[in-house]
Amino acid sequence: MRVLAMNEISVEKKRTRKKSKEYSPDQDKKLKKETDEMVPIFVMGRKYEVPPSLTIQKALEYAGYQLVRGCGCRGGICGACGTVYRFPDSYRIEVGLACQTVVQPNMYITQIPFFPANKATYDIEKLEPNGSTVAALYPEIFKCVGCGTCTRSCPTDIDVMEYMARAIRGDVAGAAELSFDCVMCGLCTARCPAEEAQYNIGILTRRLYGRHIAPRAKHVAKAVKLVEENRFEKGLKELIKMDLKALTKAYNEREIEPDMAEEFWEPEDKKHLVVE
Question: What residues pair up with 48 in beta bridges, in sequence order?
């Protein structure tokens, strides 16, 4: 995560509360409690005092940093905020996502928004969905020593070592299934003693599975055909002609499919319903 320090923003200044009509003494009590419970963390060697309830990402902002990279979704989905940290009395290097990991006293923190792992270039249309394809693009896969460091490093609790084992065996579908929740943070690769690019191998198997193995969705093919036949053209032209007020009204009054709708649910107003 690349961060830019703002021009000497005082943490104390950020804590200041401007007294207004809504001001009450409880605000000062709450602020004092927060201040008393502050914990020290170290970001790229510099010490900051932050509230103990913050994630690493929020703690950086509290300390006056502006997040420029490595702060995409803030919800543990995009994998952009890979973080490495350590505690003074431990030799262990810990890893996690900055948006999910809560600060602890005396954390020494640095961010890894991008890890320069090996990334093969390929045309998915020309590949065969088998182990030979994976091995040809990532021959280092056979260097795996089965240590499990990749699995222990995964912030989404994926059994990385197992999906790598399946990829080695040529089980593309199995590797794709096990690696499905990968957020591509690269922390597994950063810790791997065999220097493998597990997350890039995982996405290769998912692409191979999606393009060559997974059953084709018939309803999607039908929908694509309707689009190609311009069956939605009339409705689109009506929307384009509307002014903002009419468009807003149509949007707010639209019939929404219920959360627990029946499989073959249809709207009461079938004027815009495209039927085969």
Answer: 41
